[in-house]
Amino acid sequence: MDKERLLKILSDYKEGKITDKDITERLNLFYLGEMEDITLDNWRAIRTVFPEVIYGSSKTPEQIEDAVKKITEDNKTILITRISSQVVDRLKNLKIPIHYNERAKTVTVRKPEKLIGHIAIVTAGTGDIPVAEEAVETAEAMGVYTERIYDVGVAGLHRILSFIEILRKCDAVVVVAGMEGALPSVVAGLINAPVIAVPTSIGYGANLNGLTPLLGMLNSCSAGVSVVNIDNGFSAGYQAALISKKRYSE
What we know:
This protein is an alpha/beta fold. It has 11 helices and 11 strands. The radius of gyration is 20 Å and the shape is globular.
């Protein structure tokens, strides 16, 4: 259930096209989608502007396929994260429009064609790109225009400076970095938009699988930096998209 469909049901009721019983049945039908092992939150798009996202890791191919079949009955866009190529092959057989990003390990069903807003996804290194791509796919699934700026870490500081004019036009910027995680502080000190920092598990031993950049980002001396969990491109893309969409909402 999304806002557009809810308004259509209410309009039909107001015009006398459906009865009290009809509207009750329709609203109850879309409230919860109860399936074996899964209870879908069909009204999430009304509360939070985006439907429930399917986290693919640890779910069986059958569970993911069944959830997609159920959600696609009512929602225009579905995002699946951390998905395997085997599950992608199963989804292709459903004959629904899907967009698969192999690097991000995401699938978007009915990816929006019209995008609003403007955010940037920045990486310190090339190794951080898979996490960044998850952020990109999340934001674009939410209908927000996203610009990629990759491999501009602090080891060559002139690289990020060459993109400064683009960054200053963005509603929000996601900065993805491993190693010591210094780049978000640098970016936040140069622009007046929120910076969402994503620590990654990319780095040598003392990187501690992302703990070192996580702690560094949490201790940033630059104002305007918020931090998500290690390798969590999804949450960063979601936050940035919410910030951008809010500027263009009615």
